[in-house]
Input
Amino acid sequence: MSDLYWLTDAQMERLRPFFPKSHGKPRVNDRRVLRGIIFVNRNGLRWRDAPREYGPHKTLYNRWKRWGAMGIFIRMMDGLAAGKAEPQTIMIDATYLKAHRTASSLRFKKGARGRLIGRTKGGMNTKLHAVTDRNGRPLDFFMTAGQISDYTGAAALLDGLPPAEWMLADRGYDADWFRNALKEKGIKPCIPGRKSRGKPIKYDNRKYKRRNCIEIMFGRLKDWRRVATRYDRCLTVFFFAICLAATVMFWL
Output
């Protein structure tokens, strides 16, 4: 079938260093299983609807859960990004990810972090905050409920920012504390001032035009149906899907 997803030999070689070591009984074919996991996530399928060419759907699901719990998909993105990123100029922004009713149904346990799903004008959403390099390739993610301010995501991502010369962001990030924090890290903010400011903020308008790269990144991530619409109740499982999509689309 021509519409199935297939990993090339070169892509597998780049991914293989992040696979866990096999102890005892050899694992089922890594290449076939990983292809199936990508296909299911990209197309927003139930695991039982995975094409037979990828093998038993239980094998795909079990590998997805086990490797996710081990942090494999997060390490894939971080490891590949570390070798290819161009962070001289970085960008920060956030986008809404629609939550399906199956993701927000049932109550969560008391004392848990929660599902990070909040009500906004557009309905039930999760907000994805991201930092990218100059080409719009994702370096770091952070998730909050949909109604949470962009400042919260900016504060959470601040400590993990790579060494950079410039930070591009829209006026939603125009706050004195954020500008000062960037300057302490040696990063020059290229952020338009809010209209409510009494004194206009100067910024490099020509450089700011490159900020559309992060908007394009969000659009491409949402081509994966399991990212554009959140079906997963579990917050970490949904985050694994985002990391896997970012790895395949931007770093492979």
